[in-house]
């Protein structure tokens, strides 16, 4: 078993600090320890990132891009090693973990290219002796705080664009899944990315987050996690007026119209609900099926769900791994019990198994007052309810403080456009249960967050606009 170290200013350190255990959720075995860093280490990381900023930001975009390309190649070479580390600390099936490594690496290659296209403007002036120039500049030191459900992609989606435009970063990965993050940083070092450009510390989230937020040298905070913590960070970021991006919770509706291709719709629910055992912020949380096709849809869904295999993600053929911890299991149990007490009927699953495993579960006859219909589940439970017409389903789908992802299945083009445009969500999967991809904007409306990651929208978050007015 290994004691892992933090990486600040090009040095690996932290063995002398108190250690935190990293546990495999599939077996409850300890797989490593990480340093319990705090205020001091958080400050050292900012010192290092700040020292490296001038030199890194002064390089050409092409030069920085070459480092990212090298990093991308090294990750590609070690994709299976990284995926295995991820499955061991996070629980997702190995095949999904490999998929995440490729997805994560896609952000690095995409931004290695996009970093070369940070164009400015020349605007016609109001005087013949003046010129108006607009440039885009790296915002400065970036603090990235990431969650455990996508231990690789949530890092590269932030660090890729930040580095590409000339920012330096300090990273705090989730305490449950730091080993994937350490591996990525190790490969960044191997790629020759200069010291201080990437720094990573582990330990007390609240202490590290506070130090970074209070430090005026950190000009940007990018966070993925719960809405609750996002609100704390947003308040704290106000003190130094940082630029912020927040990717927070969601409660995705999945709408199946009467003209939908039901096989496609069922495959969409499986992809959007059961990936990562239901632990993604874009996971389907509630299914609305038109009342005229309820029985046939529910039968098909039950059949598809009955084929999902639960178990240790390192084993062959597993679709659903363990949940991240006991409180995640308890939350699903509570929602299932609550749904049953309010008239819900379980057509498949319904139980937590040994350890942190939970059966994929379908509850039909769901009603809007059930906890699972408005509280984020983050587990493999899918409630199904019915509706009569478009107007009703749009109103019910939008009745949420969240606005991250929504899904609509219909074969009618007019209806597809009407409904997808009426949904108050940042991402709409139209006959698509897996819309996330590096070149598209990912982010939410309402309490699901601020800003976008991915695509050229995601790079703007790391840039400041500078206007130079020239008079002659
Ligand atoms: P999740 O439900 O995904 O665990 P959290 O918002 O609790 O969501 O965690 C996401 C990330 O935020 C993790 O890296 C976690 O350690 C960190 N975090 C949690 N609380 C705080 C805090 N008060 N300040 C800064 N970071 C925090």
From TrEMBL:
InterPro entries: Ald_DH/histidinol_DH, Ald_DH_C, Ald_DH_CS_CYS, Ald_DH_N, Aldehyde_DH_dom, Aldehyde_DH_Superfamily, Succ_semiAld_DH. PROSITE patterns: ALDEHYDE_DEHYDR_CYS (PS00070). Its EC number is 1.2.1.16. Keywords: Oxidoreductase. One of its GO terms (biological process) is gamma-aminobutyric acid catabolic process. CDD domains: ALDH_F5_SSADH_GabD (cd07103). It is an enzyme of class 1 (oxidoreductase). Pfam families: Aldedh (PF00171). GO terms for molecular function: succinate-semialdehyde dehydrogenase (NAD+) activity. Residues 15-468 form the Aldehyde dehydrogenase domain. Belongs to the aldehyde dehydrogenase family. This is Succinate-semialdehyde dehydrogenase.
């Amino acid at each position: 078993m290994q004691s892992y170290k933090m990486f600040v200013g090009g040095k690996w350190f932290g063995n002398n600090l108190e250690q935190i255990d990293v546990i495999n959720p599939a077996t409850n075995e300890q797989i490593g320890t990480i340093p319990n860093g705090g205020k001091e280490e958080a400050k050292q990381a900012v010192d290092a990132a700040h020292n490296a900023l001038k030199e890194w930001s002064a390089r050409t975009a092409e030069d920085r891009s070459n480092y990212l390309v090298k990093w991308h190649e090294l990750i590609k070479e070690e994709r299976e090693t990284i995926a295995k580390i991820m499955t061991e600390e996070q629980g997702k099936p190995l095949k999904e973990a490999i998929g995440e490594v490729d997805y994560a690496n896609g952000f690095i290659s995409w931004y290695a290219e996009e970093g070369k296209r940070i164009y400015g403007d020349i605007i016609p002036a109001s005087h013949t002796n003046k010129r108006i120039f607009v440039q885009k500049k790296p915002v400065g030191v970036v603090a990235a705080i990431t969650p455990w459900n996508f231990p690789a992609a949530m890092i590269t989606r932030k660090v890729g664009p930040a580095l590409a435009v000339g920012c330096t970063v300090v990273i705090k990965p989730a305490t449950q899944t730091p080993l994937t993050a350490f591996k990525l940083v190790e490969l960044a070092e191997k790629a020759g990315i200069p010291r201080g450009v990437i720094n990573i510390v582990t330990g007390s989230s609240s202490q590290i987050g506070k130090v970074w937020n209070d430090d005026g040298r950190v000009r940007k905070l990018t966070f993925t996690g719960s809405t609750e913590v996002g609100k704390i960070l947003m308040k704290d970021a106000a003190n130094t007026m940082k630029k912020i991006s927040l990717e927070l919770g969601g409660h995705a509706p999945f709408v199946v119209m009467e003209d939908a291709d039901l096989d496609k719709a069922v495959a969409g629910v499986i992809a959007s609900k059961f990936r990562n055992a239901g632990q993604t912020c874009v996971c389907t949380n509630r299914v609305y099926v038109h009342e005229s096709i309820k029985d046939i849809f529910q039968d098909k869904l039950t059949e598809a769900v009955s084929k999902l295999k639960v178990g240790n993600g390192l084993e062959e053929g597993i679709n659903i791994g363990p949940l991240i911890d006991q409180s995640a299991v308890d939350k699903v149990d509570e929602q299932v019990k609550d749904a049953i007490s309010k008239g819900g009927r379980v057509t498949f699953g319904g139980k937590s198994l040994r350890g942190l495993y939970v059966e994929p579960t379908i509850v039909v006859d769901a009603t809007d007052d059930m906890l699972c219909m408005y509280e984020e589940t983050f587990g493999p439970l899918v409630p199904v309810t019915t509706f009569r017409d478009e107007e009703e389903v749009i109103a019910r789908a939008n009745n949420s403080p969240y606005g991250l992802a929504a899904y609509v299945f219909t074969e009618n083009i007019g209806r597809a456009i009407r409904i997808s445009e009426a949904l108050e969500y940042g991402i709409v999967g139209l006959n698509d249960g897996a819309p996330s991809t590096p070149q598209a904007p990912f982010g939410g409306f309402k309490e699901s967050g601020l800003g976008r990651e991915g695509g050229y929208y995601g790079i703007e978050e790391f840039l400041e606009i500078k206007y130079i007015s020239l008079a002659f």
